[in-house]
Amino acid sequence: MKALHFGAGNIGRGFIGLLLSRSGYEVTFSDVNKTLVDALRERGEYTVTLADDEQERIRLTGVTAIDGTDLAAVAAAVAEADLVTTAVGVNILKHIASGIARGIERRIGAGAGPLHLIACENAIGGSAQLKEHVYGHLDEATRAKADAVCAFPNAAVDRIVPIQHNEDPLAVTVEPFYEWAVDESAMFPGFKRVEGVHYVTDLTPYIERKLFTVNTGHASAAYLGNLKGYETIQQAMADEALVGEVRAVLDETGAVVVRKHGFDPEAHWQYIDTILGRFRNPHLTDEIARVGRSPIRKLSPNDRLVSPALQALEQGDEPVALAKVMAAALRFDYPDDPESAELQRTLKETGAGATLAKYTSLPQEHPLLLLAVKQFEALVAGTQS
Predict the structure, then answer these.
(1) Are residues 278 and 322 in the same domain?
(2) pTM for the model
(3) Fewest Cβ atoms closer than 10 Å to its Cβ: which of 56, 184, 288, 385?
(4) What band does 228 get if pLDDT is binned at 50, 70 and 90?
């Protein structure tokens, strides 16, 4: 069995590639990073270390890589694959779509069997977005044929893999905890199960639970930690007052998902405790600059801050803690991050209300924006006092 995985970065190697290899797949990575591609080709193996007291080292063998800019090679790999996965970032999906489309055309021409393509991204409906990009490169007749042999089941993924600087470019350290849920209702019968994947018939509850707990909590720790001058999530989570603020955020999002999806309240509060413990992991060093990057995306209406806040309002709650994190996101000033730089320019030119309206797609008079602007003004006043 062959798996083609787009993205040979830390998440690709330390999470998705690891589980695929453990399930007996021959894993080929597709990436544009020549250093990683060359090393994977030459060595055919790498090591994953678990960030816990035992520091278990897992050696993966029988892996290789292709140059992601070589569309012919990508198409050939897609044509031969039994499974295609991605971990490239949702904004990069459109860039890998043409090679995948060419590979699907080759599969159809050769009469190859069914293929599942799963986007393992921090986004709602990642595989559906991948399908849209891929089908944009196919004509109508080919799309109809592809529907019969290609499935794009959505997924929810969760594993903290911080930026790291190892002497060995292929070595990667990850936290022990992980969760990978896949919508099996969108898969062909008789598919090969990947060891460690949780297959569900309704993915939405798992996506929102993860997005509104892990991603919201991580972003909250980053933006609130940034206000206090911390450089890492671990430093921020050593501040018990700040932890209390993050917990207040997750109490708000927790109320949303418990009411909406029927999660057991006690089990969900335990889930929150687990997430907060993961953020504290002393064996990881997760930089606030990494976790907080792309603040414009994180302030978008369907993402980790605005979406649960809007749902809280609809349920009759006032999301004060979430509004404060939205305000704190406006104070995330990292010139090396293009989105942060754009956000700061817009903030300087138009003010907090107009800036939030632009990136949340909400009117300035919306109750959530009024709440966030009030929190922003309080932050500014506190800085200046």
Answers:
(1) yes
(2) 0.84
(3) 385
(4) very high
